[in-house]
Amino acid sequence: MHENKKAETLRLLREAKDSISGQDLCEHFGVSRTAIWKIMNQLKEEGYQIEAVQNRGYRLVGQPDLLGKDELESRMSTDYIGRCVYYKKETDSTNTWAKRLAEEGAPNGSLVVADTQNAGKGRRGRSWNSPEGTSISMTLLLYPDLEPAKAPMLTIVMGLSVVQGIRSALGVETRIKWPNDAVLNGKKLCGILTEMSAQIDFINYVVIGTGINVNQEAFPEEIREIATSLRIEMGQPINRAGIIASVMKAFEKNYEAFLKAGDLSPLQKDYEEVLANKNQKVRVLDPKEPFEGTALGITPTGELRVQKEDGTIAEVHSGEVSVRGLYSYV
Questions:
Q1: pLDDT tens by residue, 11-58
Q2: pLDDT per position as a tens digit, 259-272
Q3: Cα separation, 221 vs 226, whole angstroms
Q4: Within a 10 A sphere around the Cβ of 16, how many other Cβ atoms?
């Protein structure tokens, strides 16, 4: 029934308008008063501020910025995405750990989260820095019924979901820099790395790693011009678990639409609404022949449509080039 009583207790405390009585909790779980008291004490030890009022019950008065399994599972409102959480304080890289879990048969939609990574990976073999307690380092494990050639589109599905999730949780105007960087006020908040294990004609599994800058208060000089965090932009600390749950909710909706269509066509309109480069002048850093033009939007398979000076439209693939604004990162 409720395998994870702590997560369910947190969910009930969060949803309660006022206090929730010990008796109601006993009946909900079919356990004794003592068992409920033990759960409350465990939660308090983890840092949750829970008030027990005589004849009224329990009330959640303060929530630390925790990323444990109970915290994350208690916040999910999805059917299967992010419902099964694997959490460690520290791991090498959440993508590497998710691949190990896939080989062991972890369920579809499993979410792998670490507070810090000591070998985080960025695109093209770069490393991704995730200092403890400030950022989100997570990987989603999926077993999609897709041809391998379509897997790269999942990066765009996640990029859009991060932007929508942050907007929905915090009400801020996050945008997307094609193909998948979430940006706020022209600076980068997020990096995504999708990897897969596949045969010629089918996918064994896909892992989508996502790093989001949440509570960093400063960045090293070499990336300060292009990187930012939610805390820097909003001027206050942000709860990471709430952001993760919001991103998972957006992802499940987008992923289902993508699987049904087999491409990004149902997401094109939503994507273009938050596309920072739309109708902007961009420089396409194509190794063969760089060019400038105006970004129009994306194709159903995720290429960026760029109108050149002569009026022709080029479709730019994300694998081989990057796109910059003429005067800035976006």
A1: 999 888 788 999 999 999 999 999 999 999 999 988 899 998 888 889
A2: 999 999 999 999 99
A3: 10
A4: 15
The dihedral sign for the CA sequence 174, 175, 180, 181: negative
Angle between helices 22-29 and 5-15 (to 10 degrees): 140
- By the 8 A CB rule, do 190 and 330 touch? no
Q: How far apart are CA 270 and CA 129, in angstroms?
A: 30
121 close to 129: Cβ distance less than 8 angstroms: no
d(CA 231, CA 45): 27
* Cα distance between residue 6 and residue 294, in whole Å: 52
Distances in Å between the Cα of 289 and the Cα atoms of 184, 286, 308, 321 are 30, 5, 13, 10
The structure tokens listed for 149 are 């050639």
Checking phi first, is residue 125 left (phi over 0); if not, alpha (psi -120 to 50) or beta?
Answer: left
Q: What is the pLDDT of residue 120?
A: 54
Q: Would you state the pLDDT for residue 210?
A: 95
Where is pLDDT greater, at 227 or 318? 227
CB 45 within 8 A of CB 64: no
**Exposed (0-12), middle (13-18) or buried (19+): which is 176, by Cβ within 10 Å?**
buried
Split at pLDDT 50, 70, 90, the class of 89 is confident
Taking a C-beta distance cutoff of 8 angstroms, is the pair 191, 128 a contact? yes
Q: Coil, helix or strand for 187? A: strand
